[in-house]
Amino acid sequence: MKTLNNILPDDDGGGRRIIGLSLGACAMFFLLLARLWYLQVISAEDLIDQSENNRLRFVPVAAPRGAILDRNGKVLVSNTPSFSVAVIPQDVKNKDQLIDNLAHYLNLDRKEIETKWNKGQGRAKYYPLVVASGITRDQMEFLEENRLALSGVNIEMKPIRAYANGSLASHLLGYLGEVSEDELNSERYRDYNAGDYIGKSGIERSWESYLHGTDGGRQIEVDARGRFLRTVAETGSSVGNTVMLTIDLEMQKAAEQALGDQAGAAVAMDVNTGEILAFVSSPDFDPALFTGRMPPDVWKKYLDDERHPLENKALKGMYPPGSTFKIVTAIAGLEEGLIDEHTTVQCSGSYKFGNSTFRCWEHKGHGTVDLKRSLRESCDVYYYKLAERLGVDRIAKYAKLLGLGAPLGIGLESEKAGVIPTQEWKLKRFGKKWYSGETLPVGIGQGYVLTTPVQLASMIATVANEGIIYRPHLVKRVVDADGKVLQDFAPQILSRPGLKPATYRLVKEGLLAVVNEPHGTGGSARLWEVKVAGKTGSSQVVKLRDSKGGVPYRFRDHALFVSFAPFEKPEIGVAVIVEHGEHGGSAAAPVAGKILRSYFEGKGVIKKPVPKAVPKEEEGGLGVAEPDDPGQATTKPAPAAGNAAGTDKRGRDVR
Amino acid sequence: MFDRRLFTNFDWTLLGVVLLITAFGVINIYSASSSYRDVGTPYYLKQLYWIVAGLGLCLTVCSLDYHMLEDFAYWLYGGVLVLLVLVLVAGKTSMGATRWINLGFFNMQPSEPMKIVIIMTFARFFSRYPVFKGLTLKELFQPLLLLGIPAVLIMKQPDLGTAILVSLIAGTMLLFVGVRWSALATIFAAAVPTVVIAWQFLLHDYQKKRIYNFLNPDLDPLGSGYHIIQSKIAVGSGATFGKGFMQGTQSQLRFLPEQHTDFAFSVFAEEWGFLGCLLMLTLYLFLILWGLGIAKRCNDRFGSLLAVGVTAMLFWHIAINMGMVIGLMPVVGVPLPFFSYGGTSMVTSMVGVGILLNISMRRFMF
User: Fold this and answer.
1) Mind telling me how many Å the CA of A357 is from chain B's nearest CA?
2) CA distance B190 to B184
3) pTM of the complete model beyond 0.80
4) Which of A128, A317, A492, B124 is the most buried (most CB within 10 A)?
5) Backbone dihedral angles phi then psi of residue A245, each to the nearest 5 degrees
6) What pLDDT, on the 0 to 100 scale, is given for residue A455?
7) How close is the nearest chain A Cα to the Cα of B177, in Å?
8) Which chain B residues have a beta carbon less than 8 Å from that of A217?
9) What digits encode the pLDDT tens for the residues A85-99?
10) Quick check: B178 and A48 CB within 8 A?
11) What is the interface size between A and B, counted as CB pairs within 8 Å?
12) Per CATH, is A249-293+317-648 categorized as 3.40.710.10?
């Protein structure tokens, strides 16, 4: 290296260049100094003026969110102006008196205002501090009139969400809330600022980027005391896009009324497009409460309710499908050639396998049972024996072909996959090998099997249309403020199970018998004008042997019903789950029947009954529509909600 | 190894200037953060801790003979490059940019050490590379590749400020080595389409917006243009003598963004006026010229390349930060060395000073 140094010719060059670099540095510093001279000496007077007399402030203006409409353009969610009271602490002469006045005028607790005031202590001076939001128009006008007595108080207007139908479809639509610290740090909400409102659940959350719009702001000039002088510049906010759902408002209403007070979920779907027409999780909540000040007692009530009103059961609830799963087992048997329509099985009321006895729900036994009768009367023994011959992996193969065990991508976040067990799955999940005795309950939709209401609706739709899984979806199109269609969601085929036509025909005939023949378990879903087909199910929550009648609510079986109509040329599929409703036939089937009825009424196939002379009475009768459903006004605390993300409704001790 | 000559040759002037600047910095941070809510340790105290830590690192660096760096340079370069790739693959995102990686025991931002490492790499490269009458275009290819890979990786994070700084540091070293006029002319001719392409594909929208706003702050007085306007008002209203310590209205009323970090000088200018600024500029210019003097007096090529690089690093930080604060340059997040609050910047700058001290006190050993 040293030698290299010696032969290098630029020893002098190096020195010369150091001088060059030094001159460059001097020039840059001279430039900086000149600029400082310009600002601090030449323009000083002007800038001192700006700093002392006039001040520029930035006031963000939130964009109004886009509306959410139903499939016919009826408004589900829009905006309404909301007034809030803000205080600039530095402009307030007598803090205590002002707080007293505000508490008096606004009918608020003194402490609440004080807490908000103190929270804002660390903020910049002369920044408005919101002390009360969502005040009424009367209160606002009253404050305006008494402005002189309330120096330092500003009234701000901003648009908030208006829910045209109250708590209707609350889980689907979702609610808004202030963006949290964690969310602000994530890539997704990178362009948001503290205090912004965002969708926290449902469509509002998943379609946030379409609905939010572009926030604007105003640059205002205020005087030395922080009082508004004039608006210097303004960038307008632009309203968010309108999201049109596939939901039919009338059907949604009918479905919610049909479920009434019972906890559960219902999903109705167009079997030829995958469009979801009704999407219900019950009980519901009031989304408007989340935007303003949530009364603590309401919040506590929501959390303590053992029917979990805040949980979206249609999307995230995972339930054992019970006997509705027999459709899958039957399809597997037919496709694998293990059974045909003539195959019969003797049901004596139970089936002995190894050391254990598997019971049929009909303890007396069904006698000789063929495929149609096995579906119609929901014979368990038939499916125990079929499941035993199929093995768990072959059942799983057809369940997965029919779209179970994986999320379908309906356009809402946190969709659950459910569980379709296989030997490999159990080894991975529990590190234990599969016992053949565990296959039998799988055949009747118990054991490890878990499905979501959306999956069940999609499954019955695929059986109905004989071979196409359409992606179930909730959003029909997105339209911008000028009415231009930004995105149109056409039906999308996810897959085709590729089953034999005869398989569909035989299963569907069985499903028709369930609703329309004597001894069918689903008779209460029957409509006289349209042929309905379906399958009942009840899934055990806990194994209880000797309890008759006095089973506590949370230990009762779930009731399920999946159905489609019309039988000849299916248009609509419906899945209903009534939590702890006990029997699919008595609790879930009538709900499905009412949803189907509203669909055909909407189409004019069924005439609407003339409204009775006594209006507003219907609501009272809803909760007790079913004889099996005594008023569930129990106020026991709910069992600790262990898994908040998805809810596993599985019974732990199923045969 | 520790010679007595080292102590007698220790560059007290350099260390003194640096300590003087850090002292002004701490005083200024005290004022700039006085309007903040008290949460935990105050910023000026934390800055003192960082100064002590930085000095420790600085003395460690200058106690080891800098010629060792020549052997390590490429290894360090490779190591930091790997970290930069890791950041892109598995980095932690904060405020929209992925700059940090978790090394298990602590989080680090590998774009920062790249500033020092690129200096060592270039010094090592050119110390054994004979240059006659300046580099030709062909000879520039290798060094530009050495620079280009980390620069693009840093830009991808995205951290435009650091990417530009690394490029400017390397560019200054190239100028020191010597580049032929013909090569310079060709590069400028090629730069125009490159800038256009970078604008189209590499820059993020928010970065473009910042440049637009710099060119015309009134275009967006609500967004990032607001910062420039407020900073200019702060600096200008300081006038000749300033508003006095803790008396700056712009800063005390919180009109300035990030006023204890990137806009710290704005607070200083408001409170100490043109005379204060003149003093700071003089100190910084002295520091730069002193650094270049060390490069000139150094007898070996590696050492003088290293000194030029470190001085360039300090110089560009100063020029860009001050330029930003007084509205000569766009708002890029570059701190003022020894003055802005922040541990990362303090550590890098102190390591740089350590290298300068190291070269300075060993100049008679060859």
Assistant:
1) 54
2) 10
3) no
4) A317
5) -90, 170
6) 96
7) 7
8) 222
9) 888 777 677 778 888
10) no
11) 161
12) yes
